[in-house]
Amino acid sequence: MYHRPSLSPNPRRWAYPTTSNNLGRNRKADKNIHLNRCSISPECISKFNELKLNKKIKYIIYKLTDDFKEIVVEETSEDGDWDAFREKLVNAQSKNKAGKVGKGPRYAVYDFNYDLASGEGSRSKITFIAWSPDDAGIQPKMVYASSKDALKRSLNGIAVEFQANDEDDIEYQSVLGKVSKGLA
């Protein structure tokens, strides 16, 4: 609920919500929230540009470092084998701050090629996948979710983006349907 504007000497008084956590009232605390975002390694952007322009790399898998401070390239491949790519996502592991290892989220970019069912030729779409398995740890999932947009904004040229939470979401036919919008 917002305060109504009043004739008080503080014209900004009405702009802040009246919530129990007082977001917006403590500028220093708000600034610290934004400082917790992770950085993006320059290699992430250069490998993406190689995939986009040179068409040699078929996919890139990105991960957060163990301290959750930077997004880095985990792996690139010139082999477009979907099943090998899928297995790498399914078997990805992450540590939480306590050091416990478990299933882990990842970001991936895949240069997806498909033929149109109408016979009008083939298409290629650069696809961004945010892989966050349901049985991954809560902390890695939260950090990956909060840093996804920063990575996406730095990668210019993504045609399709989707969130995958279980193995069925990254089956070839499922992804083909999303990427081609049912035209393949």
TrEMBL record:
Coiled-coil intervals: none
Protein keywords: Actin-binding
Sample GO molecular function, one term: actin binding
CDD domains reported in the protein's UniProt record: ADF_cofilin_like
Superkingdom as given in the UniProt entry: Eukaryota
Keyword field contains Ribosomal protein: no
InterPro entries listed in its UniProt record: ADF-H, ADF-H/Gelsolin-like_dom_sf, ADF/Cofilin
CC per GO annotation: actin cytoskeleton; nuclear matrix
GO term, biological process aspect, one: actin filament depolymerization
Pfam families: Cofilin_ADF
Region (Disordered): 1-28
Domain ADF-H: 32-180
Compartments it resides in: Nucleus matrix
Family: Belongs to the actin-binding proteins ADF family.
This protein's name: Cofilin
Originating species: Lachnellula occidentalis
Gene from which the chain derives: COF1
